[in-house]
Amino acid sequence: MLISQVDTRIVRQQMNYINWEKQLVAIRGSRGVGKTTLMRQYIKLNYGVNAGEALYCVMDSMYFTNHSLLDLADQFHAMGGKHLFLDEVHKYPTWSKEIKEIIDLWPSLKITFTGSSLLQILNSQADLSRRVLSYHMPGLSFREYIHFYKGIRIPRHTLKEILDDADSICQEVRRVCNPRRLMEEYLRVGYYPFYDGNEMEYYSRLENVVSFIIDQEMPQFCNVDPAYTRKLKSMLLFLCDNPPYEVNITKLAAYLELNKNTVLSYLSSMNRAELLHLLYADNKSVTKMQKPDKIYIHNTNILYTLSSQLNTGTIRECFVVNQLSTSHTIEYGKDHGDFKVDGKFTFEVGGKDKSFQQIADIPNSYILADNIDFPIGKKLPIWLVGLIY
């Protein structure tokens, strides 16, 4: 039933990048980004709805109160099963130990599982890191949003292609849609693939997603005392209402009535949970408990859901960090520009009238500006970075 009802008319390209034939595959990501849908779509498209070669299991099913995963795999393999799909594997306490035993006992049986972005494969009960092929699944990019909700296909472009050939890419996109208008929608409701046209319901559902991550997943994976989850929510709300450059760890610790080391630990956990992005001026020298130079909310949809005083500059920068971080290394620009990407490109983010004064003498420097449709020299439309994945 779960497989037959899944819609396969639009499938994320990420399906094509996963090597489903490997013996052990992990698909990790934040709650709500579409991991379950992707897995069900793959099963329907490749095994059909009645085939006996594949078995899909939700790991918090009542079945597992009286049966083990190992028992299930034994029966499935004996019946000729070939591919076991385990959804939300982190909800099964001994998942890593039993999966290791399964792949040792039946090497021909393939296992694909989904799990939280907080899921620890390396430090789990049985270290699967050398055996598993792990993929991270983000929410929808701006490009994917246009495909999903408007039915318009726009090809992916690498950052190098965007920087080298921005003018022709802009012309290509402008021929099929109005990217500026669509980006306004994306910033509000485009990152998570469960928008159905009702913004208030979308924000309510997203607030539930955030609460679930903080109330359930962070105590489970990050050793956060459940009594402190309200503090984490207060921290997130505080960060949503304060521009990144104004954030001060001492001020934040005083506001939350926590010591600075606890705040830094919580920030690190929220970064792993994909609620925040922590940026440092030099990623190579970052130590475990180092104060981040800038803190961003993970994506603009969370900002629109939780912030009581939206700031245009913060929204712009949040979008850029979110879109680039999936495949690039981002550092805080400190004295030169807003961001340094992959150690060689400098970006300043702003409105259409933003000048080059701060980055005038820096090689490989660009402005990402909103409210423009075409590049003006090295000033590029900000929405271009939404075409990277």
Q: Which spans of ≥5 residues are poorly predicted at pLDDT below 50? A: none
Strand order of the largest sheet: 2-3-4-1-5
Give the structural class: alpha/beta
C-alpha-based Rg, rounded: 22 Å
Give the overall shape. Answer: globular
What is the helix fraction of residues, given as a range?
Answer: 25-40%
Mean pLDDT comes to 94
**Number of helical stretches of at least 4 residues:** 14
Beta-strand segment tally: 12
Distance between the termini: 31 Å
Count up the domains.
2
Major sheet characteristics: 5 strands, parallel
The H-and-E topology, N to C, reads as: HEHEHEHEEHHHHHHHHEEHHEEEEE
Query: What fraction of the residues are assigned to beta strands by DSSP?
Result: 5-15%
Brief summary:
The protein is α/β, with parallel strands linked by helices and 389 residues long. It has helices at residues 14-17, 35-47, 69-78, 95-105, 142-150, 159-164, 166-174, 179-189, 199-222, 229-240, 249-256, 260-272, 300-306, 312-324, and strands at residues 24-29, 54-58, 83-87, 110-116, 133-136, 276-279, 294-297, 330-332, 339-341, 345-350, 365-369, 379-381.
